[in-house]
Amino acid sequence: MSEDVVRRLYFGRDDAESDITVGLLRAGFMRTAAYEEALNGRKMLVIGRKGSGKSAIRVRLAGDGDRPGGTVVITPDDAAGDELRRFELQGLTGDTAKSLIWRYVFAVHAARYLVGHYREHRRRAPGSVKALRSFLVANDEALDERLYDRLVKGARGLETSLSLEAFGVKAAMDVRGASEGSRATRQLEILESGVARAFADLDCAGRHAPLLLMVDKLEQVWSNDPDSNAMVIGLLLAAQHTAGAYGGALRCLLFLRSDIYDSLQFAEGDKFHGDEMRIDWTRSALREMAVARAQASMGPEVTPDRLWREIFPVEVGGEPTFDYVYSRALPRPRDAIQFLNLCRDRAVAGEHDRIHEEDVVEAAQQFSEWKLGDLAKEYLVNYPYLSALFEMFRNSGYVVMRSGLETRLDEMADTLLRQFPEYADGLSGPAVVESLYAVSFLGVRLGNDVVYATDRHRAVQPYENEFHIHPCFRPALNAVNAVGLHPYEPHHAASRVVNSFSPSRQSPRVGGLGVGRDFGLMEDLVRACDRILRQMSRATSMPVESRDEVAREVGRVMEDARESLIQLREGRPVDASPHVLRAVNYLESLAGQLQANGLDHETGTESVARRVQDECRRLIRMVGGSSGGSGYSNS
Fold first, then answer.
1. Is the dihedral angle over the CA atoms 198, 200, 203, 205 positive or is it negative?
2. Which of 129, 147, 395, 544 lies 20 to 30 Å (CA to CA) from residue 235?
3. Do the strands 250-257 and 45-48 form a parallel or antiparallel pair, or are they unpaired?
């Protein structure tokens, strides 16, 4: 295969705005259920996590010819967000007041659209369209300005008075004794009636698809405070009102991040369930997307079989390659695109003519480091302490029990509370478990499966005690094993441990009583390992991944002792005392790691830790010495 094949392979850009212009969004776009619902107008809310494809749907709807009719995209910046959060009207709740300013923005966008759109229906503008033109000029809304400028003018007009002469209202809306809120509402109703009349006069609802107003990127101006929540709730209320205010000639489509939408608490929230469309990506859908983008970059000859058998390796670490990628990323397009591009980049850097297994493994490490940092940034507003919490899991096992997590949290509680005093309620054990599960950092054991949160995740139950770090984040944290044990390799530390013993402590090399003692010590080590393994077989509640890892390493200790017995029988020298003490140090570290992960508190597992400690004490007595504080390191 030519090296040029790998260089031509490309899966697109990270963000939809770039991907539609210089990437593959146009050619490699997936027409998902969420897209079809948005296109056909059956749903008003597109909800998903960051990177799930919300903006891709919006960009495709705005820029392509899939739907007839006009589109308007509204993406608030910081200045617009500040104006929205600050807007208040006396006599109205924050939610309702902010719904009015959103309704004003929608009405002005519709008016501006109609003033130019009427030519597509007839030569002469009807009186209703002329009235809209006059309103826009009188209220300084005729120019194409930033959203911030529109909000400032709208807020000023709603707080005081709009110029409504174009609609036959000759004076400002000055109803004696009326509140700001009631005056603003009445003014807005007049404006909306004028827009609705123009839509009706042009018969827009009967002749073409409705004008589509799309609001995206709210997460850039949301701060997880009451005013931010009111801003979003006001948007929902305004979009729902708009759906019925213009006779079907205009509709709104809102793109909301799931953590923002799910955090909202308001009385009318139940009325939006039928408008929700959650973006869910399955393994097969992401696999199909990868193939579609590979074909967009290289041509239709890149079949699925060729991509996953010729360009990529068939397997990585014994797993089918795409399954390897899928399991080590969160299920969303951005993650898949970044991971696959990274595999390709590693192959190009290595001047390979295809992507090799080691390219994918190296990409997984880099990708994990990216995603750990990205996760903290994604939820910086909700959980600014995530980066600090991640450090609790560094250089440990990926299986952690609730008690072990709470122990680690207690150890760093003072530091966390000093850094984040306003988040004390969120730093309790149960709250930390729930937040780490909600962001998909931790999964929870349910029966034989480990479940990671999706957009519709369930709450973690108090009786659920076994958690797993998501495979995406394990390499970055060096948490690639269930318990976090180093493999048992006695020769790595042999010289260090042997030097810690005086010559009088070491057994004779051959012959005599020393050889019999060496046989006895090695046999004792084998029997100790056997007793530990039998105790483990009774620890049925121990996480299966942890049990397998501990059993594997104890088995290696036992096998190493058996090989030493064979050497002794063949007359070859063995330093039994240092050998046994190396094994003791390793087994002690094993018991310590079980305790650090909270495994020793679980039914059955605590007996394993105790058995390991008992056997270590027995072996030390047999040697006739001490481990000296377990100075052994197996790294």
1. positive
2. 129
3. parallel
In this structure, are residues 252 and 242 in contact, taking their beta carbons and an 8 Å threshold? yes
Calculated CA dihedral for residues 291, 294, 298, 301, nearest 10 degrees: -10
* pLDDT score, position 4: 84
Asked whether the beta carbons of 256 and 222 are under 8 A apart, the reply is no
3-state secondary structure of 67: coil
Tokens of 552: 């594997």
* Cα–Cα distance for residue pair 627/630, rounded to 1 Å: 5
CA dihedral 472, 475, 479, 484 (to 10 degrees): 130
- Six token digits for residue 97: 């007041």
Per-residue CA distances from 203 to 42, 120, 127, 207 (Å): 21, 11, 14, 6
Give Cα 265 to chain centroid, integer Å. Answer: 23
The token duo for 478 is 């060096």
Distance CA(75)–CA(546), nearest Å, equals: 48
Give this prediction's pTM.
0.85
* Distance between first and last Cα of the chain: 40
Beta bridge partners of 254: 45, 215
Rounded distance between C-alpha atoms, residue 443 and residue 451, angstroms:
5
358-409 residue pLDDT tens: 999 999 999 999 999 999 999 999 999 999 999 999 999 999 999 899 999 9
Q: What angle do CA 531, 534, 539 make, to 5 degrees?
A: 125
Query: Is the separation of the CB atoms in 47 and 261 below 8 Å?
Result: yes
- Say if CB 162 and CB 100 are below 8 A apart: no
